[in-house]
Amino acid sequence: MLSDLARRIEDKSAVVSVIGLGYVGLPVACMFAQAGFQTWGVDVAAERIAMLNAGKNPIEGKEPGLAELIADVVGRGRLKCTTDYADLRDVDVVLVSVQTPIDEDDHLPRYAHLRAALTALGAVLKCGALVVIESTLAPGTVHKVVIPTLEASTGGKVGEAFFVGHCPERVMPGRLIHNLTNMDRVAGGWSPEVAEVMRLFYRNIVRGQIDTTDLLMAELVKTTENAYRDVQIAFANEVALVCEALGGDVWTLRELVNKSPGRVMLYPGAGVGGHCIPKDSWLLIANARDAVEAQVIPSARAVNRAMPAHVASMTEAALIECGVAIEHAVIAVLGYAYLANSDDTRDTPSQAFIEIMRERAAEVRVHDPYVHEFNGDAAAVLRGADAAVILVAHDEYVDADWTAWIELLRTPVLIDARHVLPDGFRAPGAQVRVLGKG
Predict the structure, then answer these.
(1) What are the CA-CA distances from residue 419 to residues 21, 173, 205 (Å)?
(2) Span 160-218, pLDDT tens digits
């Protein structure tokens, strides 16, 4: 069966489906459709499906090439989208890209979305089809969750009724198509033969190297690389706090440290957001808790989760310097998405900051040029506020006339938690504080 599947992939007669049309699944579906495969996209959100079948892009923010790609593949009939799994009866390759959240209390993964998708898929899955999980998983999950769920829903056995692989994505908002095309991928297969078929399949859209391995290694690679980044950001954030305490400048320090060979200090900031990094560290250690008492990874999580509270304290201290009590203050928050020039608000640190401010009885206004709820006039949000707090480095804020914007404030307090202001920026009579500067 695998040889037949490989042949259909080579001549592009294989039918492809992508389950979950979010930031990962949507561009993946479009790219395989563009590569010549008849592709089905599946999502539970009927409104999103309607938009896509009309050739419209549901993702906002700066996402080069995506809107044009959607319009092209939908217009040519290469991509069709549905909420009905029955439409997948003739599909040969299924890519699954659904949410894999963690519980806020115990930090363990919750796979309700994944199980639901696999159960619905299994009821219609074609014999001999390849199911590839692109969602990030705790190491061991394909064997413990994915395969048993598919075996139960199909009534067949892995390696006989269907094949399974794990090929975790390496994308980020703002670079979806670029990263999918150019970044290396790890193709973990149920068997070496499955991994080779996966390599053959992904070669249709990936220019980077495709490394084949087993299921566990693919799970480990993705969770480890994101946990590594989380730890490195935590280091930068902790050094920023040290610089503030000692009267240093973390931004100059970072430039000088990075001139030393092998040192790549990341940027500090108001916190870490997005669907991946805040949870993938917990996924990495989730199934090893009985054997390993992890210390570095949980500590890094604690540092990064504390950054919104630190920015809140910076804001309150600056207001006190100006004689304004926090419970009487109006706070203008600039930026709600977790990433610059994106509309992605998943696990955004801005929400944590807003909640802290409201708990302290401050009035909070929010502006974000890419988030529908907050994309009004920035000047209207600033006018009459007691503090402007920059939480996201959107281009609109980088390019702003800050001298004019400060004049809109009732109390001239400006907090820069993302190093948006030009170095050496000063405003007469204003309290200007930059994260990481003493």
Answers:
(1) 33, 20, 36
(2) 999 999 999 988 888 999 999 999 999 999 999 999 999 999 999 999 999 999 999 99
Domain extent at residue 171: 2-214
Structure tokens at 208: 């980077």
Do 44 and 144 sit in the same domain of this protein?
A: yes
Contacts 24+ apart (CB under 8 A), 159-162: 159/190, 159/191, 161/125, 161/127, 161/128, 162/125, 162/127, 162/128, 162/129, 162/130, 162/131
* Total tally of structural domains belonging to the chain: 2
Q: Which of 181, 214, 247 delimits the end of a domain?
A: 214
In a domain? residue 260: no
For residue 276, tell me if it sits in a domain: no
Q: Which residues are catalytic, by number?
A: 222, 276
pLDDT tens track for 345-377? 999 999 999 999 999 999 999 999 999 999 999
Domain boundary among 214, 230, 249: 214
The pTM (predicted TM-score) of the whole model is: 0.92
Contact 161, 194 (CB under 8 A): no
